[in-house]
Amino acid sequence: MNEFLRHLRDAFVSGLLAILPVGGLFYILWFLYSLMNGLVGKHTPFGEMVQNALGRWIPGMGIYMMLLLILIVGFITRNFFGRTLQYYMDRLFASVPGIRKMYSTLKQFSNALLNRNTAAFHKVVMFEYPMEGINIIGLVTNENLGKLNDKTKEDSILVYAPTAPNPLSGMMLLVPKSKIIELDIAVDDALSMVLSSGSVLPASLGRSEVPKTRPRFNPFRRRKEKE
Fold first, then answer.
1. Average confidence score pLDDT of the chain
2. Which residues pair with 170 in a beta bridge?
3. What are phi and psi of 80, to 5 degrees?
4. Residues 99-112: what's their mean pLDDT?
5. Which residues make Cβ contacts (< 8 Å) with residue 177, sequence separation at least 6?
6. How confident is the model at residue 54 (pLDDT cuts 50, 70, 90)?
7. How far, in Å, CA of 113 to CA of 189, rounded?
8. What is the DSSP letter of 143?
9. What gap in Å lies between CA 81 and CA 22, rounded to an integer?
10. Distance separating alpha carbons of residues 84 and 126, to the nearest angstrom
11. Is the pTM of this model over 0.85?
12. For residues 196, 197, 200 and 205, what is the CA-based torsion angle, rounded to 10 degrees?
């Protein structure tokens, strides 16, 4: 009975950890959209002012204002006041039991994934996994493994292989460099592939179209077709 409860608890925690990052992101975006749409929506005083000034309504005003709000917050966090505020927010979340570890891990992962000044997540590779003949796409996270290379007896790197359609969940794999094939595509394009489950391919992976030959003038073609 205790073993069953332990497995049940572990499964619940694993599901919670998988849902919270994505669910939290969508909830925050939806909350911001609802907030901005309630302030600048079509039937608000601001919306009526826009319609009177332009003579028509601009669809998606709530989305535009939400993106503008995120941009403004981004500019604020880049100055001293914003960094100070973010520091105290980090300390607040770090002092809450149960949230501390999850918030810290998610913050580090997001910084590594989105911050272009870091060395992680800036190289797209492909390798065979989970068996020979089947390939998976991943992002290189660390190429300096130190003593881990002594354990593997081979020069290896750490690769994060995101799962579709949620790139925030995936596997950390230790892959020998000899098994790695580097792909000449941007990280953003690779993430777009993951989000679309492969239905959207970047232009760098598209096949070159066969050039169409210019039709030649043939005065006897119509006569031959009639015969």
1. 76
2. 162
3. -65, -45
4. 64
5. 154, 155, 156, 157
6. confident
7. 13
8. S
9. 29
10. 41
11. no
12. 140
Contacts of 37 (CB under 8 A, 6+ apart): 61, 62
pLDDT band at 213 (very low <50, low <70, confident <90, very high): low
pLDDT tens string 129-188: 988 899 999 999 888 888 888 787 888 999 989 888 777 678 889 999 999 999 988 887
Contact 11, 18 (CB under 8 A): no
Length of the chain: 227
pLDDT reported for residue 65:
84
Average pLDDT over residues 48-70: 83
Beta strands in the chain (DSSP E): 124-128, 135-142, 156-162, 170-176, 181-182
Where does residue 202 rank: exposed (0-12), middle (13-18), buried (19+ CB within 10 A)?
middle
Cis peptide preceding 211, ω within 30 of 0: no
Q: Measuring CA to CA, how many Å separate 197 from each of 72, 149, 160?
A: 32, 33, 17
**In sequence order, what are the residues at sequence separation of 6 or more whose Cβ sits closer than 8 angstroms to the Cβ of residue 24?**
none
Mean per-residue pLDDT, 200-217: 60
Largest CA distance in the chain: 90
- DSSP character at residue 28: H
Percentage of the chain beyond pLDDT 90 is 11
Amino acid letter, residue 154:
E
Residue whose token pair is 């000044």: 117
Strands 156-162, 170-176: pairing kind: antiparallel
